[in-house]
Design a protein that fits this description.
Layout lengths: L6 H6 L5 H35 L3 H33 L2 H18 L5 H27 L4 H30 L13 H9 L1
Length: about 200
């Protein structure tokens, strides 16, 4: 009769090596890009408000649409993503969530008004919320107890990297001295979401 081993026992038997470092880099990059995407709307919102002559209420809805999607994305992403992850593996649902926020972010550049932009930002938020759940679970499942807390802290540090990247990207794309002229009648804020995607 074989001895019973819990999932924790099996995880603690994992040899630590370069695979965990690569996994940290991959999940950290996803987390950094999610952070960048969350903050880009803050930089684009003033010019979007001017372009579409938005009221304070409309601008507030647009600015918080992705956060609303994140609130919904975590509870939706967790049960649905969890079932998909159990059935198809951890990587596919994670890729699906990343694709959802990347595609929605890119399509935001094509928004024609506050309704389309808010809807796309909401979908972006759902993808980010699902990614938040999936990255931590996926990373946790490949680490021993003595390293798990440290690596989860490391992956959270990537949020600051993504936040800094959004500042640099906004500075490069929205400052007239950095990008003196845009081709044709294209609004500068649209470039933020193209590069963010």
């Amino acid at each position: 009769m074989s001895e019973f081993r819990s999932v924790g026992d099996v995880l603690n038997g994992i040899q630590h090596g370069s695979a965990q470092g690569k996994l940290l880099a991959a999940t950290g990059a996803m987390w950094a890009l999610a952070a960048m995407e969350v903050l880009l709307i803050s930089f684009g919102l003033p010019t979007m408000t001017e372009t579409w002559s938005l009221s304070g209420t409309a601008a507030g809805i647009l600015g918080s649409a992705s956060l609303g999607g994140m609130v919904l994305g975590s509870p939706i992403g967790s049960p649905i993503g969890g079932r998909l992850a159990d059935r198809y593996g951890r990587v596919r649902p994670l890729r699906l969530m990343v694709a959802l926020y990347a595609v929605s972010a890119g399509l935001t550049a094509l928004a024609t008004g506050v309704l389309s932009a808010s809807g796309l930002r909401f979908l972006t938020g759902i993808g980010i919320g699902g990614t938040a759940t999936a990255t931590t679970v996926y990373l946790s499942e490949h680490l021993t107890d003595d390293r798990r807390d440290r690596y989860l802290m490391y992956v959270d540090a990537f949020w600051a990297i993504g936040s800094s990247a959004s500042v640099v990207l906004a500075w490069l794309l929205l400052t007239p001295a950095m990008l003196p002229a845009t081709p044709g009648p294209i609004d500068r804020w649209r470039y933020l979401f193209v590069f963010g995607a």
